[in-house]
Design goal:
The chain has 191 residues and is mainly alpha-helical. 70% of the residues lie in helices and 0% in strands. The N and C termini lie far apart (63 Å).
């Protein structure tokens, strides 16, 4: 659909729901701390969007796992990633349904329990992301073998940077830094 296959759809769909679920939990805790109804509504709407988007990412991930090339090591991590995604989305879905069924009229014990479940959901969300990162960055999951075979010699050949261009570390080359100049009026000293 739209020139995207399941692995690419999974990549497109998995970041926003994770952010929404994190923000939903933060809004919920902020609502509890400030007693502001607007934050409570922000929490529920963000939770709705995160749960819907999260399940879309899970479905795309399930479809992607059936079509990407991978070895045994990646397969084992993929199984854990899928299990954690299902558990995590299950937890957030339970929290959402619980809040909707109770119509936000929960005693403090139930509120504490839903917040504890939300924290457990966040832990699951982070672990799901860690496993997904391992799949991508350690096992090149989703990258076809022929693409990797083309990329390996290209990387080995290297490339050149412009004189002022940064090289992958997010900072300029410090070996070419300007010499140290003491402020005017500083007494003579050595470094």
């Amino acid at each position: 659909m739209l020139g995207y296959d399941a692995p690419r759809w999974h990549a497109v769909l998995n970041d926003l729901p994770a952010a929404l679920l994190l923000v939903a939990v933060l809004f919920d805790f902020a609502a509890a701390a400030t007693k502001r109804e607007s934050l409570m509504w922000a929490a529920i709407w963000t939770l709705w969007a995160g749960v819907i988007g999260g399940w879309a990412a899970v479905v795309a991930g399930e479809l992607a796992s059936d079509v990407i090339e991978h070895g045994q090591a990646a397969h084992e991590i993929m199984e854990k990633h899928e299990t954690m995604a299902l558990l995590t989305m299950g937890v957030f879905t339970v929290v959402l349904v619980w809040k909707m069924v109770r119509r936000f009229q929960m005693p403090s014990q139930e509120l504490a329990l839903t917040r504890a479940l939300s924290i457990a959901g966040l832990v699951g969300l982070v672990w799901t992301g860690v496993l997904g990162g391992k799949l991508m960055f350690e096992h090149a999951a989703g990258i076809p073998t022929h693409t990797l075979q083309t990329e390996i010699p290209d990387r080995a050949a290297g490339h050149e940077h412009e004189e002022d261009e940064e090289h992958g570390h997010g900072r300029a080359d410090t070996a070419k830094a300007a010499p140290h100049v003491d402020p005017p009026g500083t007494p003579p000293h050595t470094h």
